[in-house]
Design goal:
390 residues; alpha/beta; 2 domains; nine-stranded mixed sheet; three-stranded antiparallel sheet; 12 helices; 36% helix; globular; binds magnesium ion
């Protein structure tokens, strides 16, 4: 197998929404296609992917550094041991040639988009979903296509009362979700507690409701919120402070008996090792949220999970940030705790296939080959445009 061409384009995310710190109206995502000399049903085999939501398209790094490295490599040096598939590990090594270790920033998302497209390609060659390929590749003995999923959102609405928020959560309930996540930190503590109490009435119980501060609080604010929320029995308290402030997270864990969640802004195994060592993360309780679409793809992601297990944590404590098809396949393939989804927003990337149904908080991975992008029409439109540009 030989890679003939790799193409990439930025796609703008739809919607004008904000969390406590970031407005997403200018955000973009890189869509990538890897075109090979292999034919499937008479047409050239193409691997498709994108980097995840929230960190912008990475066109510059992909075009100026990564595509030239791959196209300069000898085709045989990129194959796996069977000689039939491309090796995601060798592809990742190749696109990171001459890059210093550490300092994982935008290049982690650039690499993700390409590495993930290789998984899509290999799974299509095997005629199987990526989740099944991941499970076999990492010798998982148990594999299920049923993934636990929660509805994330819970935004701020204009006006004094909590009607918008409760209506939003009620909508998710009606769609089959049983667990929900809402934003905090965008209003005063008193207003946020009123919002949480209103949301709890619809969610049913604290164990069905997580809250996300998107890294906004200093230690005092984080502890004030922890004290105010301590009797709610929430599912988790997410990204209280700066994602790299491990000391803050560690000190907060001494003031909050419930689960803390963090990790969506860490992009490497080494960062996750440090998080596990220094941030007070508790075994069997706290939640890790790294995203394979932001952190060099599935190869590095599997290393992160292995690292966590070496340090005594369970893979069921891992709930990747992402809210899209790639995250769903990774959760199923690696047997992680579950995934999030933002119903109706972050289109065209957000959400699962057009026919996906949520039942009792569970979504099934489709049996479509690859990630199944072909069964998500608005996303597939972007890939069709990308391929037309080639
Ligand atoms: Mg978050």
């Amino acid at each position: 197998m030989k890679i003939l061409k790799i193409i990439e384009q930025p796609v703008r995310l739809q919607g004008n929404i904000s969390n406590a710190l970031v407005n997403f109206s200018s955000h973009t995502v890189s869509v990538v296609a890897v075109i090979t000399d292999q034919l499937k049903n008479g047409v050239p085999l193409v691997g498709l992917a994108f980097n995840s939501i929230g960190r912008y398209a990475q066109s510059g790094i992909i075009h100026s550094r990564m595509i030239p490295r791959l196209m300069n490599a000898s085709p045989d040096s990129l194959l796996d041991d069977s000689g039939k598939l491309l090796s995601p590990e060798k592809i990742l090594n190749c696109i990171l040639q001459n890059e210093k270790p550490g300092g994982h920033g935008d290049r982690a998302q650039a690499a993700s988009a390409i590495e993930l497209a290789i998984w899509d390609l290999n799974a299509k060659l095997n005629d199987e979903p990526v989740s099944a390929l991941i499970a076999r590749h990492y010798q998982r003995t148990r594999y299920s296509n049923r993934v636990s999923v929660y509805a994330a959102g819970g935004y701020y609405y204009d006006g004094e009362n909590e009607l918008g928020l409760t209506q939003e959560i009620a909508q998710y309930r009606a769609k089959g979700f049983t667990r929900f996540k809402m934003k905090i930190g965008g209003a005063s503590l008193a207003v946020d507690m009123k919002r949480i109490e209103a949301a709890l009435k619809v969610a049913g119980a604290g164990s069905h409701l997580a809250v996300d501060a998107n890294g906004r609080f200093d230690l005092k604010q984080a502890i004030d919120y922890a004290q105010a929320m301590k009797n709610y029995g929430l599912l988790w308290f997410e990204e209280a402070g700066d994602p790299l402030d491990f000391e803050l997270n560690s000190m907060l864990s001494e003031h909050y008996a419930g689960a803390l969640a963090t990790g969506e802004n860490l992009f490497s195994r080494q960062d996750v090792k440090n998080l596990a060592l220094f941030a007070g993360m508790r075994r069997g309780l706290d939640i890790f949220q790294m995203d394979p679409g932001l952190s060099y793809g599935i190869t590095e992601y599997a290393r992160m999970i292995h690292q966590l297990e070496l340090q005594g944590y369970s893979r069921e404590q891992v709930y990747p940030h992402s809210g899209q098809l790639i995250g769903q396949h990774v959760v199923a393939g690696l047997g992680l705790g579950g995934c999030e989804v933002y119903p109706n927003i972050f289109q065209p990337m957000g959400g699962f296939t057009d026919e996906a149904l949520i039942e009792d908080g569970i979504v099934k991975v489709s049996d479509a080959p690859g990630f199944g992008f072909e069964r998500k029409s608005n996303l597939m439109n972007e890939f069709v445009k990308l391929l037309a540009s080639a």
